[in-house]
């Protein structure tokens, strides 16, 4: 049966024939993408030089410095919830796979993390307050405008105690705690700063429980874009789990043990992304069970393995949908976010299994570390070009990739080439153009094809053509693994 599983995955992996991909090149580009998303004052070593400074007055109307951070996608808004998740995943990529990265790319990964954490530290710099967003999304989305030309309202959205923001504060705690581990050896002082602020952010999240989008003043800015749709409870467990990993303290271990049921750790265990942390939480916590025999956390391991079993078509519990070409598919926009996060979790858990020579009992099949890695590789290779379209969904990778991505800075003339101001509605001519984007956002992974594997390369179809930071972030770790292990 194990041989059958391996053979099936091998055949299922290559719908258009076997292609050897340069995973090192893909890794470099996946990290480079984040430079195209930077807000704030750009450094001299900025490599995507069609970008320039932007958002330099962010926060000034409230007498606070909120410059920096990332625009989450193809717009010019800084949404704190997905930015924090992006940061957590970049940090987890370095923690789990950093030693597999070429030294230059490990350094670039840490720079990408720090661009986010420097900003996140600003968002929690005031006691009992967290800044959750900069930019009015309605005004912003009504314009097609370069970030360097922004003249829309840079509204600042914050939550003050006793109003709740458990989701954003919990994810920010996770991001800062994970990043503290990533920086521990290279910058111990910065690592301590991150960890100290992570603890404070978690205390805010846990003391004032509730969703940030339940606050009327915040809801008008964050919804329907990054509302908390799945509840804040998972972010509390997620933040505590990362603090446990970063500190090794028993109080955080007690928290994830004693709050498992009350905070719904067994709910929605087959999801993982910026809004729902359950599958990632279960995999993260399982490390202490698989490698350390901490059996009080066994239920997390059970949930993690139940989820992983659903991904393997031969198991009796398989129920995930794949496209005819072999891509994981879930309804909704930005489908490749599921492919990159799930592949990441498969590789992380495979590492746990390898270090302990264990397998997963999926009822009628025993799933090995190799099976999980081959399943992850299927998703990676599909994204990089082994798909029915023969198209790389990473911009700038390979010979054929999306040319008309839904991204303002990429689709408008660079301010370096066209220094004249382009006003809000003046950009519409570029949005409506059928010409390729003039600026290549190297490394950007778009939302991806539909359930039929079709992709039209249409700038207006944002669900398929818009890149996001949270698609790319887990892919950094995934690619790092395959740089070191191209044939698992």
TrEMBL record:
Region forming the signal peptide: 1-20
Location of the active site: 406, 457, 466
Superkingdom of source: Eukaryota
Keyword Endoplasmic reticulum attributed: no
InterPro entries: 6-hairpin_glycosidase_sf, 6hp_glycosidase-like_sf, Glyco_hydro_9, Glyco_hydro_9_Asp/Glu_AS, Glyco_hydro_9_His_AS
Catalytic activity: Endohydrolysis of (1->4)-beta-D-glucosidic linkages in cellulose, lichenin and cereal beta-D-glucans
Pfam families in the record: Glyco_hydro_9
Gene3D superfamilies reported in the protein's UniProt record: 1.50.10.10
SUPFAM superfamilies noted in UniProt: Six-hairpin glycosidases
Domain Glycoside hydrolase family: start-end pairs: 23-479
GO term, biological process aspect, one: cellulose catabolic process
An example molecular function term from Gene Ontology annotations: cellulase activity
Entry EC number(s): 3.2.1.4
Keyword tags: Carbohydrate metabolism, Cellulose degradation, Glycosidase, Hydrolase, Polysaccharide degradation, Signal
Protein family according to the UniProt entry: Belongs to the glycosyl hydrolase 9 (cellulase E) family.
Name under which the protein is recorded: Endoglucanase
Organism: Clitoria ternatea (Butterfly pea)
